[in-house]
């Protein structure tokens, strides 16, 4: 295998998977927030909660619509750049990836369409049910992806046939893989953390500018802050559990992150004796660097959320403390950096394996020419940069506008005095 092709294929998948992950983090978190807000609005029937559903729901729809394109593009690479992986391990990975496609592109998208176009057409309880189906299927989609990723990091529930192909042997073991379950909890909590910081940052922007929507964004800021703090704690718990499991699942990654030179040498010798000659030490710069970025972001977020929970208890601080508002706006990228750092640590630290202990990355890449990979990388990178810029522009544009009468869920027939005019109210 040409080393240049391998490097370009890894870089391409890293950029596209990382780019898609940025969308997923906010989508999962905002879906949950919107579903809870709509539940509160449907039960309490207060105008403020109804307007919050529409505003934050619009931002969720924007992020989902652009993000799903990145997911489709990323799927192409399994067949284009990593045919060796699908050939050797497709029997195990194929089922979970297929189910994820059905859940995400059929069930989730269908019910999201019902939620978007069902305003003022579906009954309020039926409409509420659609957003909860969207949220739960988003969770299921993430779970199935992490089932596949968990197998790559800690392969279980398989057997090897005569030609070296991996086939599914124990579905329950694959579905309950600790590597997948711990990552699932970590990602969900991280998504809620991302949504909390996003809500707090957008709300702080409007409060800093002293807009007329003080009550709206004061409540939204509190929701974001009070969501971010427990989400950060849960994220840390699942992260700690994954760290403790590394010494068993991937001892080399654990040794590299800890900077234990003697342990690295010992594990290298063990793996060379078990799998044959080769370099089994992943890049220390990427593995340790990404892990340290994640931990540094966690420390900064811990201080911000702890202080935020205290400040959010005081109405005057929520509405008038402009230095805090600036800090919240500046902190919006922190959960994104932490999640990307964690993802790089998880994936780069597994090298040189694509399926740990079973399939090397160099054996999984497709037989392509360097020129083909360079063109492919240029096209994919350009497309993803454009999508990221488009998403950021759309989110910023709508966030700056604030809650408006037009847009998601608007109905010219709605009676303004109705406390749930912004929610489906034609049938009960």
Quick structural summary:
The protein is built from 15 helices and four strands.
Structure, described:
The chain is an all-alpha fold. It has one domain (3-250, 282-401). Helices cover 77% and strands 3% of the residues. It contains 15 helices and four strands. The chain has helices at 3-44, 47-80, 83-117, 124-153, 171-175, 178-208, 214-249, 251-258, 261-275, 284-311, 315-320, 322-330, 333-348, 361-364, 370-401, and strands at 158-160, 166-168, 353-355, 359-360. Strands 1-2 form a two-stranded antiparallel sheet. It has a two-stranded antiparallel ribbon with strand order 3-4. A hairpin with a 5-residue loop joins strand 1 and strand 2. Helix 1 (3-44) crosses helix 6 (178-208). The longest helix is centred in the first third of the chain and has 42 residues, at 3-44. The chain is globular, with a radius of gyration of 23 Å. It starts with a helix and ends in a 27-residue tail after the last helix. The relative contact order is 0.16. The model is unreliable at 414-428 (pLDDT under 50).
């Amino acid at each position: 295998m040409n080393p240049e092709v391998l490097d370009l294929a890894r870089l391409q998948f890293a950029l596209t998977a990382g780019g898609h992950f940025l969308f997923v983090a906010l989508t999962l978190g905002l879906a949950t927030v919107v579903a809870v807000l709509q539940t509160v609005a449907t039960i309490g029937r207060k105008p403020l909660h109804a307007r919050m559903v529409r505003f934050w729901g619009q931002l969720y729809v924007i992020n989902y619509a652009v993000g799903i394109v990145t997911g489709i593009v990323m799927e192409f690479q399994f067949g284009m750049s990593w045919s060796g992986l699908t050939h050797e391990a497709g029997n195990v990975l194929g089922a979970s990836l297929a189910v994820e496609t059905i859940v995400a592109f059929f069930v989730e998208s269908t019910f999201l369409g019902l939620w978007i176009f069902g305003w003022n057409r579906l009954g309020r309880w039926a409409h509420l049910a659609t957003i909860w189906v969207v949220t739960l299927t988003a969770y299921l989609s993430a779970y199935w992806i992490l089932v596949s990723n968990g197998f790559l990091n800690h392969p279980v529930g398989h057997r090897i046939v005569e030609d070296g192909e991996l086939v599914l042997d124990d579905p329950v073991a694959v579905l309950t893989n600790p590597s997948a379950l711990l990552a699932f909890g970590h990602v969900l909590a991280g998504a809620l953390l991302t949504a909390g910081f996003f809500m707090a940052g957008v709300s702080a922007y409007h409060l800093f500018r002293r807009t007329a929507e003080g009550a709206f964004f004061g409540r939204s800021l509190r929701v974001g802050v009070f969501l971010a703090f427990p989400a950060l704690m849960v994220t840390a718990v699942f992260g700690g559990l994954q760290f403790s499991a590394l010494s068993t699942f991937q001892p080399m990654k654990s040794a590299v992150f800890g900077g234990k030179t003697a342990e690295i040498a010992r594990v290298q010798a063990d793996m060379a004796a078990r799998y044959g000659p080769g370099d089994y030490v992943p890049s220390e710069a990427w593995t340790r660097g990404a892990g340290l970025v994640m931990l540094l972001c966690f420390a900064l977020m811990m201080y911000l959320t702890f202080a935020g929970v205290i400040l959010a208890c005081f109405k005057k601080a929520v509405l008038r403390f402009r230095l805090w508002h600036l800090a919240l706006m500046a902190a919006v990228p922190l959960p994104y950096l932490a999640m990307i750092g964690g993802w790089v640590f998880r994936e780069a630290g597994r090298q040189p394996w694509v399926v740990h202990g079973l399939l090397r990355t160099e054996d999984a890449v497709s037989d392509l020419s360097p020129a083909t990979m360079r063109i492919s990388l240029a096209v994919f990178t350009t497309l993803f940069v454009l999508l990221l810029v488009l998403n950021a522009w759309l989110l910023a544009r709508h966030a700056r506008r604030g809650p408006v009468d037009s847009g998601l869920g608007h109905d010219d027939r709605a009676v303004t005095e109705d406390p749930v005019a912004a929610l489906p109210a034609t049938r009960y």
